[in-house]
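Input chain follows. Return structure tokens only.
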Amino acid sequence: MAQEVGYFENNPVYQKGPFVIVSANGWRIEAELKGHHCPVLPASSIYAMMEKLGLRGKTNDKEKAALVCDILNGMVRTGQIVLHDNGCWVDVWSVFRAQEKAEQVLREVQ
């Protein structure tokens, strides 16, 4: 089961991965952000993945939030979610698309 972290809990030890569930008037998924003391809301590419998994924002269903959280942490272990340069955990394809876009812009400028 996903790791549960208190709302604004300082310096949690991320035991199962960078994603945790937090009770904040409903269960939501938050993520480790390098350099911060408590978990934060995930990057937009992660929200898109959560929606594909059937979780839109908060839910009163703790088991569903935990299941999606476990899936996201599994995706970290398989390399589908990676740590971005800015310290956020993002969908690897979002990084790839951003690099492609940058390369395209450079080609157009030359």
